[in-house]
Amino acid sequence: MKKILINRKIVQGPWGGGNNFVKSLYEKLSDNGYTLVNSLNDNIDLIVMIDPRYDDLGISINEIVAYKKKNPNVKILHRINECDARKNTNDIDQLLLISNQFADETVFISRWLRDYFIQKGFSKNSNVIYNGCDSSHFYPQKNLENKKVQTPIKIVTHHWSDNWMKGFDAYKYLDKLCEKNPDKYLFTYIGRYAKEYSPKATNLVKPLHGKELGDELRKHDVYVTASRWEPCGMHHIEGASSGMPIIYHKDGGGIVEGCEPHGVSFSCVDELAKKLDYVIKNYNGILSNVDYKFLSFERCLNDYLKLIQSIV
């Protein structure tokens, strides 16, 4: 029985999308006959490297490289889901490129992210596998095909990160829009948020995950994401899977690929009111383009399973 190590620990409760991916991949591989191990002391066939950094939640690239030197037959699958552009940092790109030198296979979570690293010097063969979400938690309301959107229009977004790059300039604009037009717009922000945000008319909801998050999302009509340069993300996938058209920023990075079929882009916050009106007028037409199967964990995890089966 093949042994696999995923180098990130699972965190219980509300956390980022990467944590949900690790948990689901762990379950998928276990269900398909692989033995999942938690340390580098075992005779491992494959290491799935999610994040090469050293912290309390994972096994670092230095430890992985040391293990591979002693056990040269072990394969390394590197899933790249980060970049410096996402949070205005300056240390992630180089770390990922250096770490990737030891990888036997590479997966990017969007074409945009792959192209981004090609410009940084990445030149190996690679795969693109888009994220998916748990369709038992994130699914549309019944009889959504002919939904009549009532006023106030219920707008929602959610984020685990409180980094300003998640789009808080747009969320501040939406807050002012709701303050001026309370009978027309209602905006809900779910999750952690930047200290500078300080909204007045926005409905703030604590961080949620799983079924609780899905139940809350389904109460709304339109999902907005203003996140910039996102490698791919999970929030917009969960929003669309819950039965909402997406309004997304044109500089959303990998998000753009995931939203184009069932969304509308904006380039500056002043366009949001106009884009909301457009989405409402074309609501059912836009919503009919949502491919719920493609957005599901089932499709995503099956893609990873096929790749892993080809490696070990």
Oligomer: single chain
User: Percentage of helical residues?
Assistant: 25-40%
The Cα radius of gyration reads 20 Å
Strand content: 15-25%
Q: Give the helices and strands as they follow along the chain.
A: EHEEHEHEHEEHEEHEHEHEHHH
Terminal Cα span: 10 Å
Helix-strand makeup class: alpha/beta
List keywords for this structure.
312 residues, alpha/beta, 11 helices, elongated
Describe what this molecule looks like in 3D.
This protein has helices at residues 17-31, 61-70, 92-100, 111-119, 168-180, 210-217, 235-241, 254-259, 272-281, 283-287, 297-311; strands at residues 3-6, 35-37, 46-49, 75-80, 105-108, 127-128, 153-159, 185-191, 203-205, 222-225, 246-249, 263-266. Helix 1 crosses helix 11. The termini are close together. The strands form two sheets. A six-stranded parallel β-sheet has the order 2-1-3-4-5-6, sandwiched between helices. It has a six-stranded parallel β-sheet with strand order 9-8-7-10-11-12, sandwiched between helices. Strand 1, helix 1 (17-31) and strand 2 (35-37) form a beta-alpha-beta unit. By secondary structure, it is α/β, with parallel strands linked by helices. It is elongated, with a radius of gyration of 20 Å. It has eleven helices and twelve strands.
